[in-house]
């Protein structure tokens, strides 16, 4: 989904008045270059609308928020700049969660999304990916992120980052190759979690 992020503030407030910007960490990251030009501090909130509410209720005239045009309408804020994000189009992916499992059928193509962690060591990521290669499972996405729960670890006198890996691949959980690949990955990974299995046309 193409997400347009706006810079919002109370009526009468100009960009030069801003000292703090509220928003969700992901939105702040997507506007990092634009924010650096403003020279402001950043403050994390659950979502842009929450930041807009704080500014409105506390009448903060030295603060702004990155959010939607709808948030400006709801909380009486002005839009100082539209398309404030660093890149356009600004593509964000959202997951739709369900209580009941979506049972794959043979007439649709499916994707599966997983997240896993690996202990540091030579070739560990290669070994993890081989589990998919051996079974001809096509990876459509692989992304690494620092492990927020345990971002660093000490190995002797060195400090190293801990990473987790998000992977999407073209197959359903009902397929035997998928089950075998995940079983093999589970033996290598420090943890493994299946985030979802869904028709590839939906996300």
From TrEMBL:
<dbReference type="InterPro" id="IPR001086">
    <property type="entry name" value="Preph_deHydtase"/>
</dbReference>
<dbReference type="GO" id="GO:0009094">
    <property type="term" value="P:L-phenylalanine biosynthetic process"/>
</dbReference>
<dbReference type="Pfam" id="PF00800">
    <property type="entry name" value="PDT"/>
</dbReference>
<feature type="domain" description="ACT">
    <location>
        <begin position="113"/>
        <end position="199"/>
    </location>
</feature>
<keyword id="KW-0028">Amino-acid biosynthesis</keyword>
<feature type="domain" description="Prephenate dehydratase">
    <location>
        <begin position="1"/>
        <end position="99"/>
    </location>
</feature>
<dbReference type="InterPro" id="IPR018528">
    <property type="entry name" value="Preph_deHydtase_CS"/>
</dbReference>
<protein>
    <recommendedName>
        <fullName>arogenate dehydratase</fullName>
        <ecNumber>4.2.1.91</ecNumber>
    </recommendedName>
</protein>
<comment type="pathway">
    <text>Amino-acid biosynthesis; L-phenylalanine biosynthesis; L-phenylalanine from L-arogenate: step 1/1.</text>
</comment>
<dbReference type="InterPro" id="IPR002912">
    <property type="entry name" value="ACT_dom"/>
</dbReference>
<dbReference type="InterPro" id="IPR045865">
    <property type="entry name" value="ACT-like_dom_sf"/>
</dbReference>
<keyword id="KW-0057">Aromatic amino acid biosynthesis</keyword>
<keyword id="KW-0456">Lyase</keyword>
<dbReference type="GO" id="GO:0004664">
    <property type="term" value="F:prephenate dehydratase activity"/>
</dbReference>
<dbReference type="GO" id="GO:0047769">
    <property type="term" value="F:arogenate dehydratase activity"/>
</dbReference>
<dbReference type="GO" id="GO:0009570">
    <property type="term" value="C:chloroplast stroma"/>
</dbReference>
<keyword id="KW-0584">Phenylalanine biosynthesis</keyword>
């Amino acid at each position: 989904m193409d997400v347009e992020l706006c810079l919002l503030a109370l009526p009468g407030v100009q960009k030069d008045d801003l000292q703090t910007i509220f928003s969700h960490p992901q939105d702040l990251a997507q506007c990092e270059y634009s924010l650096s030009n403003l020279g402001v501090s950043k403050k994390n909130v659950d979502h842009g609308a929450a930041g807009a509410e704080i500014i409105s209720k506390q009448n903060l005239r030295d603060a702004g928020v990155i959010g939607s045009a709808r948030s400006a309408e709801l909380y009486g804020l002005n839009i100082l700049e539209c398309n404030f994000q660093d890149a356009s189009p600004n593509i964000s992916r959202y997951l739709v969660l369900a209580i009941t499992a979506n049972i794959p059928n043979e007439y649709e193509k499916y994707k599966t999304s997983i997240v896993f962690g690996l202990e540091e060591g030579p070739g560990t990521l290669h070994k993890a990916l081989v589990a998919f290669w051996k079974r001809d499972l096509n990876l459509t996405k692989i992304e690494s992120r620092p492990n927020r729960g345990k971002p660093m670890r000490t190995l002797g006198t060195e400090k190293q980052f801990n990473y987790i890996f998000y992977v999407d691949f073209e197959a359903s959980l009902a397929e035997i190759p998928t089950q075998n690949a995940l079983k093999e990955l589970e033996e290598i990974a420090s943890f493994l979690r299946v985030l979802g299995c869904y028709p590839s046309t939906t996300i």
